[in-house]
Amino acid sequence: MVWRGHVTTFLTIFLFHFxxxxxxxxxxxDRWEKVSIxxxxxxxxxxxxxxxxxxxxxxxxxxCKTALHNGFLFEKDGNTKTMPIYDFNGNLAGIQSSIPGNxxxxxxxxxxxxxxxxxxxxxxxxxTRDHKGMIYYIITxxxxxxxxxxxxxxxxDVSPGKGLYIQTxxxxxxxxxxxxxxxxxxxxMWKKGPCLPLxxxxxFMNLDYDLPCEKLYPVFLTYDIEGKLGAFGWVFQGRPHxxxxxxGLGHWFHLTPITYPFIFDTSxxxxxxxxxxxxxxxxxxxxxxxxEMVCTKNxxxxxxxxxxxxxxxxxxxxxQRTIINADYISNSNTINDHSDNGSSFHMTLGQWTYIVxxxxxxxxxxxxxRMP
Length: 372
Ligand SMILES: *[C@@H]1O[C@H](CO)[C@@H](O)[C@H](O)[C@H]1NC(C)=O
Hints:
372 residues, alpha+beta, 8-stranded antiparallel beta sheet, binds 2-acetamido-2-deoxy-beta-D-glucopyranose
């Protein structure tokens, strides 16, 4: 009957508006859409505490504020490279990495020194000892204001919304470095490095020819070609004994003078870094889709700059969670931008509700038709 069609149409329109409205409201979220790590392959950090539990993480602290950090720290299979932090709502709100304190490296005079050097503390901070008594150093980033990790109450000095904050001490009321979301607000201490396709324009703190190697700052930032923050990373001198962790989740990037162009513009580097035994390791943490981190505007993917294979431990960019063979990676010398193979297709709760309601309506009209 005609009226049934009208009712269905009306309900559909009503539901559609309802769903649109609710998803508009949920669009203001104080967290990054997707935080992914690139180490060997792509790995997306569990967006919620509940997903972390499902993926086999364990929670390290049960009280939100600890002496070392704010938020609930999670760990999996001894992976100290990327330990997610969740806020009191269970949303991903930060990341902590820890490195062992038993490495050797070099100072500006090419003399051997113990790592990590005091000069990079903070943001590196003394952490805890493992069961063998080895001290670990921690570095922590938050994706929203550190004061809002354990409490919903924003005071006037606290800006809500997503961001990037590097912890610089144990008093999180004051000890953090706020990273601007746009590169034009960066202080002049941040030196512009190279733009690398699918990584963005790199910025390094105080990095120039005169920088003593012991002061190599462990945080770098990357912005897209329009100047919007897209990723950050850690870079430390040395090579840790736990370079590969038990969970099989890839490894740190590792660079020597030959492979520096992976992240550095070598003309900026101090001579002590050219010491052939000098090495660095680190990770990239993407706050956005890496495919947006291109180096030319309106990029035509077939014309993207190719990097020589020796510069890049990872030249093929797989979609998230795709495990790729390490030998294969090092032999490949082109960037294959694997576009979505459906993995990024994700429906919101509102869209699910909408579909469920539509199915329900269809069933109803079918039943009505069958009624005598
Ligand atoms: C340290 O080693 C590098 C590379 O071998 C060299 O260029 C530099 O001059 C050395 N610096 C000092 C202070 O000896």
